[in-house]
Amino acid sequence: MLANQIGYYSLILGVLFSLLLCGVSIKDLNSSSKQINQNILSLSFLQLVLVIVSFLSLILSFINSDFSNETVFNNSHTTKPLFYKISGTWGNHEGSLLLWLLVLTLFIFIFLIKSKKQPKKYKLLTLLFQEIIIIGFFLFVIVTSNPFNYLFPIPAEGLGLNPILQDPALAIHPPILYLGYVGSSIIFSASLAAVTQNYISKEWGQHIKKWVLVSWIFLSIGIMLGSIWAYYELGWGGFWFWDPVENVSLMPWLTLTALLHCILVLEKRGALTSWVVILSITTFTLSMCGTFLVRSGILNSVHTFANDPARGIFILIFLFILIFLSLGVFFLFHQENDKSTNNFFWLSKESSILVNNWFMMYFLSVVLIGTVYPIFLDVISAEKISVGPPFYQKLITPFLVPFLLFMALGPKIKWIKSKLENKNSLIIFVITSVILTFFILKNITTDLLFYTILISAAFFLLFTTSRELFFQKFNNISQAIAHFGFSLFILSILFNGILSSEIITNIKVGETYNYNDGEIFFEKIEEKNKSNFNSIIGHFKITNDEGKVTKLNPEIRVYNQPIIITSEADIKTTLLEDKFLVMNIVKGNKYFNIRYQVKPFMLWIWISVLIISLGGLMSLFKKKYEK
Amino acid sequence: MKTLKIFLIICLLASFSQLKSDEKNTQLKNSILKNIRCLICQGQSVFDSESDFAFSIKLIVNKKINEGMSEEKIYEFLREKYGDWVIYDPELNKNTYILWLLPLLLFLAGGAIIRKNLIFKK
Amino acid sequence: MKNKINIIIIFISLIFCFIIFYIGLDKPNTYTPKTNTEKNLPIFKAKDFTLNSYINSEEIFEENIYYIVNIWASWCIPCRKEHPLLMELSNDQLIKLIGLNYRDNLNNAKKFINELGNPYTQILIDKDGTLAVEFGAYGVPETFLIDKNKKIIKKFAGPINKKIVEEIKIIIK
């Protein structure tokens, strides 16, 4: 109860401190001293502390199952295991907004500490732009989404957390993801500040690159965690469904990746300044837009939060204020350099990065249009359509081929002006890729032409990056690792798609089901009781045609509060393949419906994302070992 | 004796081709079911859903495939009963021209802009 | 000058997007199929409840009057709630009710009818739910109004209420 009060008043104090911080900063803008006022650093620290206190108060309320707090009542239950009581704090709308505030205030504080050498006005303006966002979120929380609403009379028991959300991957997915796309707020604020100061330069590029990398790495891993959760928890063996919520996390990643590449050009040559600013604005705008789409109830999705149009209106207005503000700043202050600095020789690294932007913007437009078009159509003509995976696959896959090729060749091209060197080895790689692919594929798929082109392009990227990594001196190891990881990623996904197989059948205890490559024996059923659910575990022995036996034990769980039945798949993961078995009750009789999938190279999909992130991480620490 | 052997071989071949076509039918059925939305559990495809509605649709799709109906015709049938929303793949019609063409137009426009800014002479 | 035009275009597009999203917020995000387009009555064969033999749709809907097709099941609780209203409608001479027993156990269905009364001229069995799909139904209860030209002119998803009964009565006059 006390935690409730502390939590709420910390928020009130927090917004007051934010306003104070703005006032002090504006005054400091006009002062003549070279360094920013030390009070500003202290105030920003206090602002962060207040948010932390508020967040901890909510966690404490969850741990204590304090149902006088409405958020705790709605989302928790006394029988929830402790770990999930804690992670339940951010598994709901109000709590996750506290996480937003936490990342916003944390990043600006770290920014101020780590930017001691940066110009004073630039730092103050970054702070001011960030504070606009922070104050906006404070108001959003206090006015429409208070996590500390008081309930009286105090209920004896809570409404419980959705059991699908009781999963380790899902517990850490929001914090990591938020460090990524909420973290892009600092890039947004810093770019706007830099634009007003005409500071978009090589020095600024070097300074902001760290922030772009940090945000990008967290976003990549955060998205991967979400996919892993979907794969392990949702029971259909898929990891990406082009669901609006997934798309909404992917879009900032696309712009952030494009931004990362543009920063390279900015750093080296001082060019592409407009691209950098626009991409910085767009990344955070897309994060905000994503928040709007997911929390307002405007879209239909398996994993949307509480749907409340009033909240939707607040975010919508807030979002558009930010858009108009940022575009206004850009148009008013941005000074295009000498026109000629943006005209590149066609065969140069600068132009290959421009080509990268081109493709990234295309992919972004596909995802964005696919996600919001149904809304537009519904409002304009009251027609309802669905835009599902086939749309995205059809529009993205063909463009992957040139994209992979550019990704392989781009890093080899020099700055300013270049000739394509080592043409012979490249031609050898192309031929090897195509022949290798053809022989691998000819017995396993009917779409031979399509897959051959796609997969050989991926192999080409793999070969060129492998050569850079293993046979050449380390002049740009982080890029080689990231691109190498990407080629692995595409190859894993494609081979997983082609080689996966699935068997669906109804079976009862003691029965054996025979299929082409083996048999499935339903040995027995075991029943277990846990603190908040009862489970029925099926024991299966699967024997493949080489005699190898795999034991899989999928579970059906009946949760007690709220009463939900879930299927927990049992997955055996090896480097080579995953074996995936899920079981469902068939209404009314002793049969169980089982779905057995063999999914080659699943693990490599996750490993390759980690490799890509590793490339980013190495770039972050590059200065430390390079001269 | 010889006719019996030939007869047996033909039966075997027929059953193989039946197996192959069964396999192909199952693959086709599964890919169609994955493309249909469940109206009860609106976030799932009919393939993944366990609802009554999904159960009935699975039977109907199976029946129509065995009757030889093409994939397009099956989608048309379902769209007629339930509206365009029920199919995940948006077909190209007057409602969706912009959906499909806008990204491609943007790609071409982007290409033109880049082309303009690049220097091709030495 | 070119810059100014660009800015104006961007500004107008953003306002447009804002308006669309604003209006979109009020729309429901779950999908229900359209209920206002006229559809043809499907042609089918179904098993009769009591006679246990197959009957053609042409024979079921042969008279030149209005028909109601009501999809129900003994396990469906809202069906119990709407049943008295169906009984009321069955007293009207201008209309005949055809019941579609959806994914049900025959004995339970018979008990349901014996307990609550039979408003239907005829009851068809839809054990696997495929007949309901022919009508474009996806759940239970659902009710369809069919006119004298054998077209489905009205569709009601969910249990019918007094308002709907009034609406039907006005149409059939």
List keywords for this structure.
heterotrimer, A: 627 residues, alpha+beta, 4-stranded antiparallel β-sheet, 62% helix, flat, B: 122 residues, mainly alpha, Helicase, Ruva Protein, domain 3, 66% helix, 2% strand
Helix-strand blueprint:
The complex is a heterotrimer of chains A (627), B (122) and C (173).
Chain A: H1 2-30, H2 38-63, H3 70-75, H4 82-87, H5 93-114, H6 120-144, H7 168-181, H8 184-196, H9 202-233, H10 244-269, H11 273-295, H12 309-333, E1 344-345, H13 349-381, H14 389-409, H15 423-441, H16 448-471, H17 477-499, E2 501-507, E3 512-515, E4 518-529, E5 533-544, E6 549-552, E7 555-559, E8 565-568, E9 570-573, E10 577-585, E11 592-600, H18 602-620, H19 622-625
Antiparallel strand pairs in A: 2-11, 3-4, 4-5, 5-6, 5-7, 7-8, 9-10, 10-11
Chain B: H1 2-33, H2 52-66, H3 71-82, H4 97-117, E1 118-119
Chain C: H1 2-24, E1 39-40, E2 45-48, E3 54-56, H2 57-60, E4 66-72, H3 77-90, E5 95-102, H4 106-116, E6 122-126, H5 130-134, E7 142-146, E8 151-157, H6 162-172
Parallel strand pairs in C: 4-5, 5-6
Antiparallel strand pairs in C: 1-8, 2-3, 2-6, 4-7, 7-8
Q: Can you tell me the CATH topology of chain C? A: Glutaredoxin
| Number of E-state strands of chain A | 11
Main beta-sheet strand count, sense and barrel state of chain C: 8 strands, mixed
The percent range for helix content of chain C is: 25-40%
Into which percent range does the helicity of residues of chain A fall? 55-70%
Number of strands of chain C: 8
Number of helices of chain C: 6
Strand order in space, largest sheet of chain C? 1-8-7-4-5-6-2-3
Structural class based on helices, strands and sheet pairing of chain C: alpha+beta
Task: Report the sheet with the most strands of chain A, covering strand number, pairing sense and barrel closure.
Answer: 6 strands, antiparallel
Q: Strand-and-helix sequence of chain A, N→C?
A: HHHHHHHHHHHHEHHHHHEEEEEEEEEEHH
Determine the N-to-C terminus distance of chain C. Answer: 67 Å
What coarse outline of chain C follows from CA principal-axis ratios?
elongated
Low-confidence stretches of chain C: none
Integer tally of domains of chain C: 1
Number of helices of chain A: 19
In terms of DSSP E residues, the strand content of chain A is: 5-15%
Provide the gyration radius of chain C in Å.
Answer: 22 Å
- The CATH superfamily of chain C is Glutaredoxin
What string, H for helix and E for strand, traces the elements of chain C in order?
Answer: HEEEHEHEHEHEEH
